């Protein structure tokens, strides 16, 4: 395969990964309405590796539980790879065990820059999380955009890759992703072997990874004020799940599998508010079983061309106040907190997959509160092309913040 063919293949593959909260969030609400009964969510199979054990989730948030050296990867030449499990907090304020993978470049300086990068993860199975997917050869699991991180590693940045969907792969729970991200940074800075205790910290992510990043930035002043967060780069962020859902009809959709998976993930995180399982018909229950441990390609395949009316017994859009609360609680536009770290935000004005007005409203609110925000448009034909166009600028933005250059403000 030649270099141009490789680029084409990567672009086509990236289009499959249409952001963990995009069409999924817009379609999910049709499944989450009119419920009165409660049901047990379909949780993923627990990881057999005791490193991922929930039983060890003790101490304060960000406390390391276990640290280990992981096998080297040809994807990251010369890079030492570590994994850390640590204590975090779920959406019900209960302790959970989370995991992050740490990439340490050979030219790392003591207390050099630390980047927390939130991958796009469309999954219900724990085997699809970055700590597992980086070592996968299965095309349903492998993270194809991972090699771009070598750009940052060559600069000497240490990179943390959190499994930001959490131990139950709670696909859709964006606020949870922000908390796991911040606690992962805390944990890294408490591990002497990683030489990052006093590092300046940056964060970056796009689409679903951008949701975790945007939430982490907004939560940081109150959730993790001790983290020296010097810059944030967030792109293509779905900032309001309810708005996305309100514009959706009931017609069959090629990406309905993502919607169904997001409904399952939210049920895992909010079992008392979203008893999805009691609202499924025979087809819905069959899909639920097939997707319980699925990654992106299988999720798309199983749900292709389906609709809410085909899989559920109730399709009243957003009629449940409990559903509205869950959606609102995971919409960063509606969260009153404002980032204190400088923020670079990018998107395309022609993005049909996210509500652009929510992006504009959120950035305007940040600016009105005095935040340092640079917002940049990258006109492009689709959502994921914008990720490719904006990421080099995002890395340069973070480099300037690591170097102490004053952040620009486009408000």
TrEMBL record:
It is an enzyme of class 3 (hydrolase). Gene3D superfamilies: 1.10.260.130, alpha/beta hydrolase (3.40.50.1820). Keywords: Hydrolase, Signal. GO terms for molecular function: triacylglycerol lipase activity. InterPro entries: AB_hydrolase_fold, Lipase_secreted. It comes from the Bacteria. Residues 1-39 form the signal peptide. SUPFAM superfamilies: alpha/beta-Hydrolases. Its EC number is 3.1.1.-. GO terms for biological process: lipid catabolic process. This is Putative lipase.
């Amino acid at each position: 395969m030649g270099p141009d063919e490789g680029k084409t293949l990567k672009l086509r593959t990236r289009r499959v990964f249409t952001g963990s909260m995009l069409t999924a969030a817009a379609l999910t609400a049709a499944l989450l309405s009119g419920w009165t009964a409660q049901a047990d969510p379909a949780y993923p199979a627990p990881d057999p590796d005791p490193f991922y054990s929930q039983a060890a989730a003790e101490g304060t948030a960000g406390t390391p539980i276990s640290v280990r050296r992981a096998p080297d990867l040809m994807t990251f030449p010369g890079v030492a790879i570590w994994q850390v499990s640590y204590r975090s907090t779920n959406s019900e304020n209960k302790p959970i065990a989370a995991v992050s993978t740490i990439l340490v470049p050979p030219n790392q300086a003591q207390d050099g820059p630390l980047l927390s990068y939130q991958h796009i993860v469309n999954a219900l199975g724990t085997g699809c999380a970055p700590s597992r997917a980086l070592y996968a050869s299965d095309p349903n699991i492998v993270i194809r955009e991972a090699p771009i991180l070598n750009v940052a590693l060559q600069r000497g940045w240490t990179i943390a890759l959190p499994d930001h969907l959490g131990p139950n792969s709670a696909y859709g729970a964006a606020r949870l992703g922000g908390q796991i991200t911040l606690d992962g940074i805390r944990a890294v800075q408490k591990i002497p072997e990683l030489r990052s205790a006093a590092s300046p910290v940056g964060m970056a992510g796009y689409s679903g990874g951008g949701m975790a990043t945007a939430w982490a930035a907004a939560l940081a002043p109150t959730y993790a004020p001790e983290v020296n967060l010097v810059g944030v780069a967030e792109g293509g962020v779905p900032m309001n799940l309810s708005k996305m859902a309100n514009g959706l009809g009931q017609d069959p959709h090629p990406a309905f599998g993502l919607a169904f998976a997001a409904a399952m993930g939210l049920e895992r995180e909010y079992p008392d508010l979203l008893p999805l399982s009691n609202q499924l018909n025979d087809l819905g229950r069959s899909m639920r079983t097939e997707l319980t441990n699925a990654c992106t390609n299988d999720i798309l395949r199983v749900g292709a061309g389906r609709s809410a009316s085909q899989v559920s017994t109730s399709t009243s859009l957003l009629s449940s106040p409990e559903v509205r609360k869950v959606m609102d609680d995971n919409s960063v536009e509606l969260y009153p907190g404002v980032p204190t770290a400088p923020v670079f935000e990018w998107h395309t004005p022609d993005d049909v997959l996210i509500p652009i007005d929510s992006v504009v409203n959120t950035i305007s609110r940040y600016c009105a509160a005095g935040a340092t925000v640079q917002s940049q448009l990258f006109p492009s034909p689709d959502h994921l092309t914008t990720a490719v166009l904006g990421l080099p600028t995002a890395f340069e933005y973070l480099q300037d913040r690591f170097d102490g250059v004053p952040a620009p403000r486009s408000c």
